[in-house]
Amino acid sequence: MTLSKIINEIAYPLEDKDFREECKRILAESGALVLPKFLQPEAIKAIIQEGNAKASLAWYTQSTHNVYLTPIDPAFDTEHARNKQVTSSKGCITDDQIDKESPLRLLYDSTVFREFLASVLDEDKLYNYADSLSSINLHYASEGQELGWHFDNSSFAITLLIQKPEAGGVFEYLEDMRNADAGEMNYDGVSDVLSGKIKVKELAIEPGALVMFRGRNAIHRVTPTRGNVTRMLAVLAYNSQPGIALSEAASKTFYGRVG
User: Fold this and answer.
1) Which Pfam families match (predicted)?
2) What domain range is 33 assigned to?
């Protein structure tokens, strides 16, 4: 399958300098960039078929964590924003389980696509993960599964919505909710989000959309899936430096094994 069979090259001229600059501007201003109908219908269908065929291979996890994805700090009480626990649950198949001819693999490895991402993200170059599990993941969220409020440790995330559930599975966020580099955690603001006192934003995402998101300082979650249709989301993970692999402990937590 060629790149033109995978993505809508007419709507999204990835090599065009002006298009790249506009994408970069939107991402810088809002912390999120959504490109609707980025994937061609044929590619979406192929990925859904692969996802359904390999659903039995998925590693399912359910965990509780704080929004900062850090251990509990005894200096704060359990209901403090620093320690308050939320729930995340999902299934996942890993890079080594994705077909060699999968549209996800061909897109991930595409030089044109990778150079487009690097340009928009203002990175010199993007690299695969050094381990065999982390570069491409396909996530499954069935009835009741969700991604709790959190901040990302990485500076950017790249995802493709493959299949939308009947209800729920909504991506909610608020940008600039902390300054991680300055060590400003904004406990009061986070507490207000967790208690529902602040109106949060939603990303309107339909199947086939490419989403680039800066989640290091933007608090975000995915609401519980409702209905019989599983939410499928592809995560395309790159690094700005070569040779980076997920730690053994993290790999066992996320994937149930080490790559």
Assistant:
1) HalD
2) 3-255
What CATH number corresponds to the domain at position 195? 2.60.120.620
Angle between helices 111-121 and 17-30 (to 10 degrees): 50
Cβ-proximal residues to 237 (8 Å cutoff; 6+ apart), any chain: 129, 134, 135, 136, 137, 157, 158
Band (110; pLDDT cuts 50, 70, 90): very high
Amino acid at 31: G
Identify which of 107, 4, 89 has the alpha carbon closest to the alpha carbon of residue 47. Answer: 107
Q: How far apart are CA 72 and CA 67, in angstroms?
A: 11
Residue 248 tokens, joined? 């053994």
Q: What DSSP assignment string belongs to 89-120?
A: EEEEE-GGGS-TT-HHHHHHH-HHHHHHHHHH
Total of domains in the chain: 1
Residue among 44, 63, 7, 101 nearest 232 (CA): 44
The candidate with the shortest Cα–Cα distance to 172, out of 236, 215, 208, 231, is 215
pLDDT of residue 1 exceeding 90, the answer is: no
Per-residue pLDDT of 61-96, as tens digits, reads: 999 999 999 999 999 999 999 999 999 999 999 999
For the chain, the straight-line distance linking the first and the last C-alpha, in angstroms and rounded, comes to: 27
